Automatic annotation (TrEMBL):
<keyword id="KW-0812">Transmembrane</keyword>
<feature type="domain" description="MacB-like periplasmic core">
    <location>
        <begin position="24"/>
        <end position="202"/>
    </location>
</feature>
<dbReference type="GO" id="GO:0022857">
    <property type="term" value="F:transmembrane transporter activity"/>
</dbReference>
<dbReference type="Pfam" id="PF02687">
    <property type="entry name" value="FtsX"/>
</dbReference>
<keyword id="KW-1003">Cell membrane</keyword>
<dbReference type="InterPro" id="IPR050250">
    <property type="entry name" value="Macrolide_Exporter_MacB"/>
</dbReference>
<feature type="transmembrane region" description="Helical">
    <location>
        <begin position="346"/>
        <end position="372"/>
    </location>
</feature>
<keyword id="KW-0472">Membrane</keyword>
<feature type="transmembrane region" description="Helical">
    <location>
        <begin position="21"/>
        <end position="41"/>
    </location>
</feature>
<dbReference type="Pfam" id="PF12704">
    <property type="entry name" value="MacB_PCD"/>
</dbReference>
<keyword id="KW-1133">Transmembrane helix</keyword>
<feature type="domain" description="ABC3 transporter permease C-terminal">
    <location>
        <begin position="267"/>
        <end position="382"/>
    </location>
</feature>
<dbReference type="InterPro" id="IPR025857">
    <property type="entry name" value="MacB_PCD"/>
</dbReference>
<comment type="similarity">
    <text>Belongs to the ABC-4 integral membrane protein family.</text>
</comment>
<feature type="transmembrane region" description="Helical">
    <location>
        <begin position="307"/>
        <end position="334"/>
    </location>
</feature>
<dbReference type="GO" id="GO:0005886">
    <property type="term" value="C:plasma membrane"/>
</dbReference>
<feature type="transmembrane region" description="Helical">
    <location>
        <begin position="262"/>
        <end position="287"/>
    </location>
</feature>
Length: 389
């Protein structure tokens, strides 16, 4: 029997017995659809999740304590150009003994001269108001964002600080924002000023003390830390012990994501295996039902190889049919999830790759599922088979 004839016979048999294969097709199709959906949407979700740096707060921020004796301003630009770095924000600090608002005084506060991108680089959520802007720095506006502890000391609980003034070293600053309770308690005691104003108006506030670096994706935090360390320690070895990030929290998050993916792919794998076992069981039942037919075919000259080939081909057809159903269902699921949940940002290259992988898995499942029934059919004795009722 030629290949074309074999395929046509197998297609006719599968079509004739399609109801018998229904449960097996559904199981394998569900596994295929799940695989396509997880590979395609999961990759996009993982990428979007990685870019959601706020999910880990300040854990993704790489912090470099600067020795201003060696640090040069072009070091900041060099850090920003490193692969994986989204942005870098310098900061200058100065401790003051007191700040005041009317008759209220807070003893002990930290001034931080920052660029407007500090709110992008360091996780500093606002309770109210707005962050500092580039325009504030360019025009050297006397504005500030205060920490929550500073607010509690200078303002009543029901009083909004926005638009009011605080006096620092004889200079009046208008409050434009208030930090929510930050992860780093030092920021609760801090007053953020435009770096240009701080350097020009506040004594001893010129040298850069800290450099905060944020990666493009929180998965890249460790790599960014290594690159920043290599760059800065290559210029000055003293940086080696002062470039840090929260490695423990990053590792916990990575393990959580990897564990979730493992169980998800395991569930899909189990579904595909169960679908394959369903195909095997149906094929074994059909071998028993078609014993007389097999005996007649062998009696008129069909070889064991021809019988084996037909049953393998039928198993393969069932598996590929399941793949087609699964690919269609998976494609619809991907489109629905993309539209409803991730705003259409789907890696369609990954969709094509997942379809190719699904077809390959379908072929493997079809062949493996058909081996036992095909060998069983091929080994039947024609005389015994023809007597079977």
């Amino acid at each position: 029997m030629g290949i074309i004839d074999l395929l046509l016979v197998s297609i006719r048999q599968v079509s004739r017995l399609r109801r018998r294969y229904r449960s097996a097709v559904i199981g394998t199709a569900l596994g295929t659809a799940g695989l396509i959906t997880v590979m395609t949407v999961g990759d996009s979700v993982e990428e979007n999740l990685g870019r959601n740096l706020g999910i880990l707060g300040s854990a993704t921020t790489v912090k470099a304590t600067i020795d201003y004796s060696y640090f040069r301003h072009n070091d900041i630009e060099d850090v920003r150009k490193l692969p994986g770095v989204l942005d870098a924000a310098p900061a200058v600090f100065h401790d003051v003994r007191l700040v005041s608002h009317g008759k209220k005084v807070k003893y002990g506060a930290r001034l931080a001269g920052v660029e407007s991108n500090i709110f992008r680089v360091v996780y500093l959520p606002l309770a109210e108001g707005r962050p500092l802007t580039r325009e504030d720095a360019e025009k050297r506006r006397a504005v500030c964002v205060i920490g929550d502890e500073v607010r509690k000391a200078l303002f009543e609980p029901d009083e909004s600080p926005i638009g009011q003034s605080v006096d620092i070293l004889g200079i009046s600053f208008r409050v434009v924002g208030v930090l929510a309770q930050p992860e780093d308690p030092l920021f609760g005691q801090t007053i953020l000023l435009p770096i240009s104003l701080g350097r020009s108006q506040i004594p001893d506030m010129f040298p850069i003390r800290k450099l905060y670096i944020i990666p493009k994706n929180w998965y890249m935090t460790e790599d960014v830390h290594k690159r920043v360390s290599a760059l800065l320690t290559g210029r000055q070895p003293k940086y080696g012990q002062s470039i840090t990030y929260d490695a423990d929290r990053i590792e916990v998050m990575k393990k959580t994501v990897d564990t979730f993916k493992f169980f998800l792919y395991t569930a899909i794998g189990v579904t595909l295996v169960l679908g394959g076992l369903g195909v095997t069981n149906v094929m074994l039942a059909l071998v028993k039902e078609r014993t007389t037919e097999i005996g007649l075919r062998k009696a008129v000259g069909a070889t064991d190889g021809a019988i084996v080939s037909q049953f393998l081909c039928e198993s393969l057809m069932v598996s590929l049919m399941s793949c087609v159903v699964g690919i269609i269902a998976g494609g619809f699921l991907v489109e629905i999830i993309a539209t409803a949940m991730i705003k259409g940002k789907v890696a369609y290259g990954m969709l094509f790759q997942s379809i190719v992988i699904s077809v390959i898995i379908g072929i493997v499942v079809g062949v493996v599922s058909g081996v036992l029934p095909a060998r069983t059919a091929g080994r039947l004795d024609p005389v015994v088979a023809m007597r079977f009722e």
